[in-house]
Amino acid sequence: MNTQRFLCYAVATFMLFSTVPSRVIAKDNITEYNVENKDGFKKAQTAYDNKDYKKAVKIAKKLAKRNNAEAQNLLGICYFYGYGVEQAYDEAVKWYRLAAEQGDAEAQYNLGVCYYIGYGVEQAYDEAVKWLTHAAEQGDAQAQYNLGGCYENGEGVEKSFTEAVKWYKKAAEQGDAEAQYNLGGCYSSGKGVKRSYTEATKWYRLAAEQGHAQAQYNLGVCYENGEGVEKSFTEAVKWYKKAAEQGVAQAQNNLGFCYENGNGVEQSYDEAVKWYRLAAEQGDAQAQCNLGFCYENGNGVKRSYTEATKWYRLAAEQGQAQAQYNLGACYYYGDGVKQSYTEAIKWWKKAAEQGDVQAQNNLGLCYFFGYGVEPSYNKATKWYTLAAEQNFAPAQYSLGVCYANGNGVEQSYDEAVKWYRLAAEQ
Q1: Cα separation of 300 and 298, whole Å?
Q2: pLDDT for residue 17 is more than 70
Q3: What distance lies between CA 202 and its chain's CA centroid?
Q4: Tell me, what DSSP letter sits at residue 378?
Q5: Furthest-apart CA pair in the chain: how many Å?
Q6: Using an 8 Å Cβ cutoff, are 107 and 71 in contact?
Q7: What is the DSSP string of 242-311?
Q8: CA distance 153 to 164
Q9: Distance CA 348, CA 365 (A)
Q10: pLDDT tens for residues 147-198?
Q11: Residues 393, 397, 398, 404: what is their CA dihedral angle, to the nearest 10 degrees?
């Protein structure tokens, strides 16, 4: 039996607020504060940067009561994280709001995040969008990125991929890696923009070069498939490895596949097993199936049908069709498990219903000969037909036999010859 590889683009699920805001950015355009306030905030900022949080809070409180917006925002951050004070989200929101209402973009962003996740206030996407928009319109890159996410998911606003792309692009052009990754995803899928793999790889690359693991994986996929770039297994392996070393399970699986088949690297079953195992232990179904295949065939590990069925089962229970087929085969032959046609049919049916051609053909055989089920020519021809229509030669031949003999279908030599011919031409 042959294993299959599934390359999954991670463009459908984008993370919002991957890190809760913690930055404190000194503004260059403060003109309304006097020298004392400016110097005072610098001292608070320095104390914060040096992790002398109690001192930072002490200075910031004095300045915050004088309506120093930066100090109010800094104080909000300290309350949010419990830096130098007892953690209190409601106090954080109080100070963020005071600063935000003075137009401080940093505080507007932070307040928007609080509304989005419901910390210190009742969760409200519309309020989150309101404050994120204020910050985004002032050029805050994180606010622009997260506002794009709200538009993409229809949270607090009407869903609009066009608006999502607009805000992702603004943040991406400022170097925000998450926005660059999401923008690449939009170009790859054609959401909100005309599909362009060239643009997708451009933005994936910018994010990948900043160390964005998922972008590194996606860029590897682009190189492996030759989408937006010249096809190159060597480049694919390069980017898969960077992502894999950061723990991206899909990249680990794909890197394992490259080692198993010698694509872009010297062929090595040992390396293949190493990467498959890392991904499999994270629960990646495709890697679990691939690792099971290695155990079944003794590739890079000592052959063990027991280990093979263990990994096939873990993948099969997640709905991985190839693993369901392979597990069914193990039950059919009694490899690593007690032989059982009933269990074989159970797993083949799950795979067949997902379109697995080998499982469909094998179900046809079981129904034709009555292995583990009541014999039924009608059901046999049903499954043979599904596999035959996917151009699977053994099923085409078997279907031809059914037509020649009138098994489960009206006898027809013309139909028999048609399916025999299709099988023979392969």
Answers
A1: 6
A2: no
A3: 19
A4: H
A5: 99
A6: no
A7: HHHHTT-HHHHHHHHHHHHHTSSS---HHHHHHHHHHHHTTT-HHHHHHHHHHHHHTSSS---HHHHHHH
A8: 9
A9: 11
A10: 999 999 999 999 999 999 999 999 999 999 999 999 999 999 999 999 999 9
A11: 160
Radius of gyration for the chain, computed over Cα atoms and rounded to the nearest angstrom: 29
Residue 319 φ/ψ region, left for φ over 0, alpha for ψ in the -120 to 50 degree band, beta for the rest: left
Q: Look at residue 34 in the predicted model and tell me its pLDDT.
A: 53
**What is the rounded distance in angstroms from the CA atom of residue 363 to the CA atom of residue 373?**
10
DSSP 83-131: SSS---HHHHHHHHHHHHTTT-HHHHHHHHHHHHHTSSS---HHHHHHH
Among 10-14, 117-121, 338-342, the minimum mean pLDDT is found in: 10-14
Which uninterrupted H or E stretch holds 49? helix 35-49
- Tally of CA atoms within 13 A in the half-sphere of 313 that contains its CB: 13
Task: Say if CB 190 and CB 208 are below 8 A apart.
Answer: no
Give the Å distances, CA to CA, from 120 to 110, 236, 333: 12, 45, 60
Task: Give the position of tokens 């190159």.
Answer: 232
Interacting residues of 317 by C-beta distance below 8 A, sequence separation 6+: none
Q: Where are the beta strands (DSSP E) in 202-247?
A: none
- pLDDT cut 70: percent of the chain above it: 91
| CA 163 to centroid of chain Cα atoms | 22
Q: Are 106 and 6 in contact (CB under 8 A)?
A: no
What tokens were used for 217? 């994986």
Helices (H) and strands (E) in the chain, counts: 22, 0
**CA proximity to 8, closest of 310, 277, 279, 349:** 279
Residues 241-254 have pLDDT tens digits of 999 999 999 999 99
Is the distance from CB of 95 to CB of 76 less than 8 angstroms? yes
Question: pLDDT grade, residue 12 (50/70/90)?
Answer: very low
Rounded-to-integer distance, Cα 83 and Cα 415, Å: 78
Inter-residue contact 352 to 363 (CB < 8 Å): yes
Q: How far is the C-alpha of 419 from the C-alpha of 390, rounded, in Å?
A: 12
What angle separates helix 321-333 from helix 285-297, to the nearest 10 degrees?
30
